[in-house]
Amino acid sequence: MRFPKSAFKISSFLAVSLVVVSLFSVDCKKKAPPPPPPPPIPTPVVPPGSLVFVQRGHLVRLDLESSQITPLTSGKSTEW
Questions:
Q1: What is the C-alpha separation between 8 and 13, in angstroms, rounded?
Q2: pLDDT of 29-54, one tens digit each?
Q3: Where are the alpha helices (DSSP H) in 1-80?
Q4: What is the pTM of this model?
Q5: How far apart are CA 15 and CA 38, in angstroms?
Q6: CA torsion, ordered 65, 71, 73, 76, to nearest 10 deg
Q7: 3-state secondary structure of 58
C-alpha cells in the first residue's frame, strides 16, 4: 500500500515538531514561587490629647495634659 506524498510530508512535519518540542521541554525548570510580601508596618495612632510635630528633624509627641514631650524617632538622619 502506498501513502500519498502529502501524508508523508505531514507525518514528517509532525515527527520533527515532536522532536523539537521534546528538546525544548527537557531544560524547562519550574519557577520558584515569589517570596511573600513583607508584613505591613502598623500606622502609629496618636492618642487623644496629643500633638505630633517635627522638632530638629525628628518626630515628637506632645501630651497636651502633662506637656511631656516624647521622641518618636531617633538617629542622625532627618526623619519625617
A1: 8
A2: 778 888 999 998 887 777 788 888 88
A3: 5-26
A4: 0.39
A5: 49
A6: 150
A7: strand
Q: What are phi and psi of 13, to 5 degrees?
A: -60, -45
Q: Which three cell numbers stand for residue 66?
A: 502633662
Tell me how many degrees the CA angle 40-43-45 measures, rounded to the nearest 5. 155
The amino acid at 50: S
Whether residue 1 has pLDDT greater than 60: no
What sign results for the dihedral spanned by CA atoms 69, 73, 77, 80?
negative
Which H/E stretch holds residue 52?
strand 50-55
- The grid coordinates listed for 65 are 495634659
